[in-house]
Amino acid sequence: MCKIWFINLFFFSLLIFLMGIFFILNDFVIFIEWEVISLQSMSIVMTLLFDWMSLIFMSFVLMISSLVILYSKEYMSEDYKINRFIMLVLMFVSSMMLLIISPNLISILLGWDGLGLVSYCLVIYFQNVKSYNAGMLTALSNRIGDVALLLAIAWMLNYGSWNYTFYLEFMKNDFEMMMVGLLVMLASMTKSAQIPFSSWLPAAMAAPTPVSALVHSSTLVTAGIYLLIRFNILLNFSWMGNLLLLLSGLTMFMSGLGANYEFDLKKIIALSTLSQLGLMMSILSMGFYNLAFFHLLTHALFKALLFMCAGSIIHNMNNTQDIRLMGSLSLMMPLTSSCFNVANLALCGMPFLSGFYSKDLMLEMVSFSYVNYLSFFFFFFSTGLTVCYSFRLVFYTMTSESNFSALNMLSDESWIMLKSMLGLLILSIFGGSMLSWLIFPSPYVLVLPMYMKLLTLLICIMGGFCGYLISKISLFFFNKAMNMYNVSNFLGSMWFMPYISTYGLINYSLIMGKMVVKIFDQGWSEYFGGQQLYYNLIKNSQLNQMLQNNDLKIYLLSFVFWVMILYIIMIFL
Fold first, then answer.
1. What pTM was computed for the model?
2. Rounded Cα–Cα distance for residues 449 and 454 (Å)
3. Domain boundaries, the chain
């Protein structure tokens, strides 16, 4: 079943990609309206929008999902319910398809809610308490965005139609459209896990690794970015764009710091996704929606590869995810290590790999743009942090001494997983240059002073060197000093956001519930109500029991009393 779906999705993605190229070259847009029901003067219409952006994004989603399904054939081979897993993945992909081709807020909500529901099912796939907690955190965080979209649909009623594409351009200064834009921005922030909704993204790592590869590359977390790309007109030169720039810059900075303190392999890659999402949101809030879309596509390629390599390593290491127990994997798993290193270098922005074309262009556009020092610092320092945790990860997994058990089965013999990884490897190397030729009709030429041109490269080299130092020397005294003031705990726990969004929300409600129980259920109302009634019934039943147990004495005594009363009455009468 996996192979059939892989072939179907793969060829379908190639077909859609060729259509996307045709649409770019001829500047085509197809807008389809299908009248579902017509009743008197009212008609319910399903609308679909096919332009180069939606077609190319769909082709990437289908390509990655086809390779993920092929990869799952071996990764999930011990799962008896693998068909159920494949069906969930296909439902996930179809929800994303609906969201991509919808110019209508109602059909967007259907795809959006489909993503939220199926992602919950996938996060709790391995049924244990940790998965259930992670699934609930994921689902409830995303519900905020769903409610925001419902409110945006209500505000769109002011225009008579939910096809936002008709109104964005000429109603952008309208108050109603500003409210719709604000609600869409809130929904996108929850789905793309920007501060303060970031805590669910690392928690969603409870899902199987193939799902993580799909979620973190091209589906769930990119849905918010894609929606904001469609609504980008509302962000330009408004306070909403400035607010988003600040929050996404903080997200980028926070996740970069957190990844340097993390030891769980999948969580490090999840935090790197969060950092890249912050980068895309930042550049989008500055008005460069084409660049954000370009990085969205290139990031999808190397991030899916990174997760697949991580899954292969975890699979071979008997489900161990702690990087401190790894080491010397480059000797034992050379092919997987090569793919892992290429994906890591693409993430860092190594020249002429796919990440370089989008990342370098974005940072140069930031240097060219009118931004304040804080935003500039967030962009460049976060880039340095990306290289830092990537080099730290490579040191712990590839080059350091092996800390795993002496008897192990580490090998590169999982051919089906390797085939899917090698497919993404080729795309991670050549995808960026290919897309840059397609998306931009004329190449961007940014003329900057030499020190500004070399700033990105210098930051990357410094970040890599710091990552090596942190891993090699472990900076013992530095860590000890930071632990004294609990700073590392603060930095490594995503600024306490997981605690705030779980314990912080339920703690006070539980305390109030306890007070209510003590005051009402165990307090005066219970004392004078149910408990008092219960107490009186017990007393009366005990008295009744005592009377029935001593019936002969009682009857004789009552007879004597009755005779005495009669005698007294007769005397007085």
1. 0.86
2. 9
3. 104-503, 523-572
